[in-house]
Amino acid sequence: MKRTMGMLLLLTSWLAACSPSAPQTTTTPAAPSPPLPTAGDRVLTVMGHDSFVVSESVVEAFEAEYNVDVRFLQAGDTGTALNKAILARGNPLADVFYGVDNTFLTRALEEDIFLPYDSPALQAIPDRFQLDPQHRALPVDYGDVCLNFDKAYFEAEDLAPPANLEALLEPAYADLLVVENPATSSPGLAFLLATIANFGEEGYLSYWQALVDNGVLVVNDWDSAYYSEFTLHGGGRPLVVSYGSSPPAEVLFAEETPEVAPTGVITADESCFRQIEFVGILNGTENEALAQLWVDFMLSTTFQEDMPLNMFVFPVLPEAGLPPVFTEHYVIPETTAELEPDTISQNRQAWIEAWTETVLR
Question: How far apart, in whole angstroms, are the C-alpha atoms of residue 260 and residue 125?
C-alpha cells in the first residue's frame, strides 16, 4: 500500500503526502500473550516508513484505553526502514514495524524479524490480502501505482490518453512520459514490476528500450516526477507514474475545490500494480502484549477509517467507511498486474540492475 505507496509523499508535503501530523516512532513488538506491563512501564514504540501518518486523536484514543504512551520512529523509505529493522534483529529498535509491502515481504519474512500473531481481527480481512499464512506480517492497507495524466493537456491537444502500457510506445506519446527510477523510488519499482508482469522477463527490457526510444524521462523520486515534471504542476510531461489516489488528493488540496479531478488514471489491461502494506511485531520485543493490542487497533474500524485521508490508501477492512472525496475521485482498477512475493524477492535486484543497464546507460 507498501504503502511506498509516492502519493504518500503528496500528503506529507503519497500523503506519502500532505497535511496531518506524521508520527515519530521508536522500539519493539511481539506475538502471543505475556502479561501487560504495569503503569509507568507502558511505552510502545512503532517503527515505520516516513510516509506513515495517523491522526493524533486516533493515537490518543489508544493511549487512553490502554494507559500507554505510543512513540513513533520514522526510519526512511520502505527499503531503508526494513534494512534498519533487519540489522537490529533480536534487539529491535521498536516493538512494532509497519510499512513492509508485497515487494519486500518475502525478504522481511526470510530475515525472521517478526513474531507470529494470529490476531482475531484477521477474521474480517479478505484472504486475498493475507499473504503470510503464519501471520507474522498482517495486512493493513493497499493502493495502486498507475499512470496518471493531465486532463487539460490532452483536451487542449485533442489527443486521447494512452489506453494501456503498450500504447505508450506510439509516436503520439513521444516525450510525454516521466517515470521514477525503480532503484530509488517505491512507485518506480512498482511500475517496473507492472511492466514485467505484462511483458514477461523475456520482453520487459525490450519494452523499456522502446520507451527510451520514445523519449521517456527518468527521475529519482515521485516528488520530482509529480511536482517538477508533470504538466499539472508546471512541468513538460502530461503522463506520470503516480497513484490511483492522486486525483482525490488533487481535489482535496486544491485552493478552490473542483467538481472534477484535474487528473485521470489509466487502469486498463493490468497497467497498475497493487501495493499491500503490512504490520508485524518485532522479534525480541519486551512489550509483546501491548504490541498485539496495537496490531489489533491498526485493523480496527477506527484506525482503518483514519488512513484514507492521511495516507491516501485503501483500508483492508471491508466495513471501514471511505470519505466522499476519496470514493468520488479514486479510480479503482478492475484488474492489476500481479507477481508473487517470492518471485519479486528472488529477482528484484537482478531486474533493477538489468533495467539500469538498459535505460540509464
Answer: 32
Q: What is the mean pLDDT of the chain?
A: 87
For residue 163, the SS3 value is: coil
**CATH architecture observed for domain 144-273+330-359:** 3-Layer(aba) Sandwich (3.40)
pTM for this one?
0.80
Flag whether pLDDT at 143 surpasses 70: yes
Q: Which grid coordinates belong to 41?
A: 512501564
Mean pLDDT of 49-56: 88
Burial code (b: 16+ CB inside 10 Å, e: under 16) for 41-67 equals ebbbbbbbbbbbbbbeebbebbeeebe
| Alpha-carbon distances, residue 171 vs 168, 213, 215, 229, 244 (angstroms) | 8, 10, 10, 20, 25
Cite the residue boundaries of each domain of the chain with CATH code 3.40.190.10.
43-142+275-327, 144-273+330-359
The CATH number given to 43-142+275-327 is: 3.40.190.10
For residues 15-31, average pLDDT: 36
